[in-house]
Design goal:
Mean pLDDT: 78
Number of helices: 7
Helix content: 25-40%
Number of domains: 1
Low-confidence stretches: 4-21, 207-211, 216-235, 239-247
Radius of gyration: 20 Å
Order of helices and strands: EHEEEHHHHEEEEHH
Structural class: alpha+beta
């Protein structure tokens, strides 16, 4: 069932009141009034290399028929819940299709290929290996009403184990171009719900420092060598919707 686009609607610029941009640490954020889910709108979220999260969001208040949107920026060092991490992992196949990394799978089902089941299984396994090289780290929402879209950011590990930043084009939920737009919208909706739960309901990771084998838990202890200079790979980008409102 297609999600309700009403949840993505934001006040029009004509009716929008004074915007306030607030930057808060997680400690400062905990003393704020908790907005209802209906008033909360995710703008941007990025997973940090050390397990934390970087969130931009808006809270809309309506006072005497006037809409006021407060903008907030929260940095949290606490690790995210596995449910939120799983949402980002669900974006890997979409990134794979955007960059034609797994496009060969569509050929396996064509009559001309005459591929047997063993060959199809081998192709699927190889595609899964390729998708393991993709890490989606960021989601940036923009636009209003039927023009709501998203840009995905991530890392691709190439054959020499070096990492390169990859950014998707702006993907409009309401324009079917790739065939996965409805699935993408559902995933982004789940991400918004999980971020809200992280910020305001305390839904964070509950991780043991060490696994059953006594080794450090890789979800807690990151390898700095694997993440070297990772922040430099994601420069701030202008909102694509500002210049391409009709995309």
């Amino acid at each position: 069932m297609k999600p309700n686009f009403e949840k993505w609607k934001k006040p029009t610029r004509r009716n929008r009141g004074i915007n306030k941009l607030s930057f808060m640490s997680e400690k400062e954020q905990t003393v704020m009034p908790i907005p209802t889910k209906e008033k909360f709108s995710l703008s941007k979220v990025k997973l940090l290399k050390d397990g934390g999260i970087d969130v931009h969001y808006e809270v809309t208040e309506v006072i005497e028929d006037e809409s006021y949107t407060n903008k907030y920026h929260v940095l949290s060092a606490k690790d995210i819940h596995p449910d939120l991490r799983n949402c980002f992992d669900r974006l890997r196949p979409i990134m794979g299709r955007i960059f034609n990394i797994t496009s060969f799978l569509s050929l396996m089902d064509t009559p001309d290929m005459k591929a047997n089941q063993k060959q199809k299984d081998a192709a699927r396994n190889f595609a899964d290996e390729m998708l393991e090289n993709i890490k989606v780290r960021g989601v940036s929402l923009s636009g209003q009403d039927d023009n709501v879209g998203v840009v995905l950011t991530g890392l691709l590990t190439v054959f020499n184990n070096q990492k390169t930043a990859i950014n998707s084009p702006r993907l409009n939920f309401n324009i079917e171009k790739y065939g996965f737009e409805e699935e993408l919208e559902n995933i982004v909706c789940d991400i918004e719900n999980e971020v809200y739960a992280f910020l305001f309901k305390g839904k964070k990771a509950q991780l043991e420092l060490f696994g059953a084998d006594g080794e450090p838990n890789t979800l807690v202890y990151a390898n700095d060598a694997d993440n070297e200079n990772e922040n430099d790979m994601f420069p701030e980008m202008a909102d694509p919707a500002d210049d391409t409102d009709n995309m």
